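Need the bound structure for zinc ion, inputs here:
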Amino acid sequence: MLLAARHLAAPVTVEQAREKEWAEAEREWRRPACTRCRAAFSDERWAEQERADTWGDDGLCAGCRQGDADQRARQEAEREQAEVAAAEARGSRSWWRC
Ligand SMILES: [Zn+2]
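Answer from helper R.:
Posting the output first, comments after.
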C-alpha cells in the first residue's frame, strides 16, 4: 500500500517531505470533534466512529460519553431510591410489582 510504504521510508526529497506534511495536516483537518465539548477525537475514537454506522454514532468524545454514563447511573440510582421511598410511604412491601 502506498501510504504504508511512504510511512516506513523516510522522505528523501523536499517534495516528498512537503507531501507528507500536507497529508498529515489534511488528516488532522478531517479529524472529527466532539459535538458537545468540541474536543478532537483520539485516533482510537475516530476509528470507532468510522467502524460504527455514522447515524448510530453519538458523536461524543470518550470524556463526554463517560460523563453521560455517570449521569445516567446517578439518575437511575435516584429513580430507584425514589421508588423505594414512594413504596415505603404507601406502606406496601410489593413495590416491585406495580
Ligand atoms: Zn466531549
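Comments: Residues 3 and 20 are 10 Å apart (CA to CA). Residues 62-90 form the longest helix (29 residues).
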